[in-house]
Amino acid sequence: MHYKFLAFALSACLLSACGVGTASHPEEADLTFIFTTDLHGQMLNYDFLGKKADSTSLSNLSTLVKATRQDNPDGVVLLDCGDILDGSPAMYFYTYEAPEEQHLVVRAMNYLGYDAIEMGNHDFECGESIYRDQLQRAYKMPMLCANAIDSRTDKSMFRPYTIINRNGFKIAVLGLITPETYKMVSAPSIPHLRFDPMIESARRWMEILERQEKPDYTILLAHAGTERVTRQNEAGEGFYDGTYEVAKQIDGIDLVLMGHDHQVRQDTIISNSGKMIPVLQPSSECDEFGRIDMHLRYNKGQHALVEQFDMQRIKAKSIPQDEEFNALFQPDIERVNEYLDKPLGRLNISSEGGASLVGPSELSSFIHSVQLTLSEADLSMASSLSTFTDIMAGDISMRTLFSLYRYENLLTKLWMTGSEVKEFLEYGYGRQYGLMQNSDDHLLAFRRDDNGEIIMGRWGPDLVMPQYNYTSCGGLNYEVDVTRPAGDRVRILNLADGRPFDPEATYTICMTSFQAQGGGGYITDGLGWDPNEIRYRTINETSKDIRYFIAQFLRNPSAHATEMHPVGAWKVVPEVWWRHAKERDIEMLLPYIRK
Which stretch of DSSP H or E encloses residue 249? Predict the structure, then answer.
């Protein structure tokens, strides 16, 4: 797919009038920018969950980069927009099981010769000992993040920007992350970090860049998506903070490369000053790479003129793999496979992919049981698991657990009143399920276009709430009435042990650190808690991720038998409508769940 425009509508006469180069600066140059985002550890040519070779990985990128550098040795810039570390068994192994060794991500990114890497929210989950200490020392390229501020020094923990010289032209790259990162990462993982607003940080550092560095071309590398986060300034006036808003409001940005929300974008922004700014975001997990080819002409004292511009998203599978890369990292594949195949124990339940989206499932009950036993909380909130995988009863290994828990979430214990528990559930079920007026209506809440038709996204029918945020409660007996409007659907019957449920009482609740920090909006939007309230309500948090404790549980289930907490039960009513609608909706999703 190509996206072309010449010189941002500049006329040929304007181009011919531009100044010639100086003795220290060439007049013109060809540059190529290659860009990845949201890799989530999908680096090696192997699918660890499917236990088979993978056609897309950084091996494909290696072929592309080597060929492009051969054509233009000093004209290639290789960038990444974050979320590298979390989401792959290989990343987990080198982060948590072999932390004393040089990390796979370091060896792979150094081999490819990246010029800069922006931090993503998932890159903070491993803790300071990895992202601040180990990686910053071992990477041969700078880690960027202008608005991740070290509270001990009041300065950026990472480089705010970097300057890259290519073919005589000075390229500035400014890195920013969504300030909502604090909601997505557990507090122990970011003990000395705060995340400042993007627009304020961009304004500060762009002024420094323009004054001190005088770049020919400036790129905004933003791990933030386009979310429009409402904030208030000191005068109490509302404004928005997000990637597009930064590009619109802050002068000096020539190109936006972005990630975070796993969308694809090939767009143009018109800034407040009338400048056309191209935007590119390839898809995630090595499915696509971004590439921009341009011809720049020197423009003394100002940003370079863009005479030719070609922007595209390249499918990784269209590029042959680099056999040298594969051979170099084959020992890593073998080592991680050996770790994943170690048996843990036996799972006596089965669960079909997608079952937890449409109602209660045995797998969700099992997770509730583990969480309640581990935390000794009154209630458990667990998000939908195994949405894209069928789990079968039998022997289970770490490989199976990774298909359930892809990310390294801790288990957080906090407290709520009974009425807040109900609000929490109402928030979720108001977005998970649609309003049913008869048995032919859909159970799941799908996004719809202006004509009322279901929108089809990358993963099939587009859900109002992403599948990984679908949440149920353990420790309660309750009903969800989908004939009722959102906000008035949940009827709590009693606690799982038969005690009455009291809206005025205080209950301890366990959930993932992602959700406890505001992920999915339950805490922040549903209950309206700010970071101070979250800290006040938090009782404790596990030192290791939930996957680790499930593994321990499976290794020795008898050790927990006497501590098992009752999980309770919930159901969707009217049940006749539910049974009919859930089968139809799952049938719609199955081609995408199992593809």
Answer: helix 243-249
